[in-house]
Amino acid sequence: MAYYPNTDDDRREMLAAIGVRDFEELIKDIPQEIRLKADLKIPSAMSELEVTKHVSTLAGKNINTAEAVSFLGAGAYDHFIPSAIGALLGRSEFYTAYTPYQAEVSQGTLQSIYEYQTMICRLTGMDVSNASLYDAGSGLAEAALLAVAYTGRKKIIAADPINPLYLQVVRTYVHGQGFEIVEIPSKDGVADLDALRKSVDETTAAVLVQQPSFVGTLSDVYALGEIAHAKGALYVVDASPISLGLLAAPGDYGADVVVGEGQSLGISQSFGGPFLGIFAVKDALIRRLPGRLAGVTVDAEGNRGFVLTLQTREQQIRREKATSNICTNEGLMMLASTIYMSLMGKQGVREVAEQSSAKAHYLAAQIARIPGFKLKYSQPFFNEFLVSTPVPAKTIVEAGLPKNILAGVDVEKLNPSEKGLLVAVTEKRTRAELDSYVEFLKQFGK
Prior knowledge:
By secondary structure, this protein is α/β, with parallel strands linked by helices. The protein has helices at about 10-20, 25, 50-60, 85-90, 90-95, 105-125, 135-150, 165-175, 195-200, 220-230, 315-320, 330-370, 395-400, 430-440, and strands at about 70, 130, 155-160, 180-185, 205-210, 235-240, 255-260, 275-280, 295-300, 305-310, 375, 385-390, 405, 410, 420-425. The model has no long low-confidence stretch (mean pLDDT about 95).
């Protein structure tokens, strides 16, 4: 597609048509404190060949997990991705497909959605899954909206530790709608049951929790559900899908809504996206489910077929009365996770979970022996844990980059009230890599 930039004369003509003197007058209502002031150092015009070389040079400055040992987590994990996923996603009928608004002619797409929904339900222990949302943050926000619409109540309680980025999305979604978001601080790295009991009341629409938590710990999710249900609130659980290979399914401990980040199911980290939002509910909430929903039926000749169903929930049908503004899904990412779950199977997902957990516990024990280092919380964890460090976590992260070690996440950057190095371990990490990482950390010990 050709690109035709605007000339200076074009811009002057457009500004005059709008009725402003110059571009500065056009953006005068944007506060100065949020305007970009840095010099982007955009070079002068280049030929296509020069641009290609320049962009390749910039891309070469990136570090990816094919060439680095990654201990990054906080919602994006370096799991192994079978090569079959890329091979299948790259097929033109998948890679170039658009959202099927005339859905019934897209039987292959609808079948893949249906298979995805089925596997998510089996993984989470829930009754119904949608065709996916954008990411875990949008899933948690949509769960809050669902709870308010279903209960008629206006208070949402978030029981920390929950990923601060996800809560930021929730606040953005509900801004201006008169909802109250109450954040209950964690206690010793897990959800504070006593504080939650005091906060949940007859005005509470939902209790939001994350399992494993933002800092990797495991809370008493059975007790959390009982507290929510005792006051008639919905119980919303943000669950890591890989962890469900080992941990109890949210449906088994009473979750009404399950959301999660599906990136670990065969999707590349891709510097932060696109990702996949998991969203599943109990039967009673099916008509409140946001996004699209594929079902199976039989046509007039008795042939099995797939359709989009219960669309009266959706934006294009109900307009302002719609369940949600979302009437699509992350089709390509959903397909990637469907292929992953199909390839891995129940035992494969369990194997990934077992290896990730076992290797994380081995590494945590080794780090705890380094003078000046210790695990910040003594609570059980799955494959991620927070380390108190003798030097700022930022120093360790920066020191690892020249060595192609992605040492972890400086949690203070995401949550100013928390300090430490958040370390995640997946099945990809070898014993040699774990031991080498410990040796790297020893230089900071005291």
